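Q: Given only this backbone (172 positions), what sequence would you predict?
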């Protein structure tokens, strides 16, 4: 299932008590989604189950962020990230995501679990600026080198701030 969605300038704002929950298989296909995810994504549960999780990816998101996320998960670690998502009608919504590998009884990764909550306005402002810069670098570099230049910019920012990625994300 692939929908052609055009972004619009309409922000959906999560409520303080909201948690968006989803699970995916190893290939990123949605295997579970809660009612809050369904509400913000704007798709039916039937449309979401089995779909690639990137069905809600907003084009304002740099590819480097997702490479960082998948590299972190691939190393067996959890990842925190601010993400701008897009609903089926083109509206957008920001989340602070915590994504973790979902382990089987044998300790093998069988998928991923993500819990998202409402980010602060200050975090959205900071990440919007950073992601805009990362996206510009990706566009300048072209598709082949996009993730590398985007992540290099992120590394420079983190070095200047003297923090790790996780410290940065959890501090804003």
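A: Predicted residues:
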């Amino acid at each position: 299932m692939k929908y052609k969605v055009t972004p619009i300038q309409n922000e959906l704002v999560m409520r303080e008590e909201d948690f968006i929950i989803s699970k995916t298989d190893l290939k990123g296909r949605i295997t579970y989604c809660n009612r809050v995810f369904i509400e913000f994504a704007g798709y039916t549960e039937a449309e979401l189950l089995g779909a690639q999780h990137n069905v809600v990816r907003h084009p304002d998101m740099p590819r480097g962020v997702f490479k960082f996320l998948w590299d972190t998960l691939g190393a067996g670690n959890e990842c925190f990230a601010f993400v701008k998502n897009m609903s089926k009608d083109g509206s957008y919504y920001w989340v602070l995501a915590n994504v973790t590998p979902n382990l089987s009884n044998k300790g093998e990764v069988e998928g991923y679990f993500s819990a998202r909550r409402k980010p602060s306005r200050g975090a959205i402002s900071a990440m919007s600026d950073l992601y805009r810069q990362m996206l510009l670098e990706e566009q300048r570099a072209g598709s082949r080198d996009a993730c590398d230049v985007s992540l290099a910019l992120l590394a420079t920012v983190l070095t200047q701030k003297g923090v790790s990625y996780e410290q940065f994300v959890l501090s804003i």
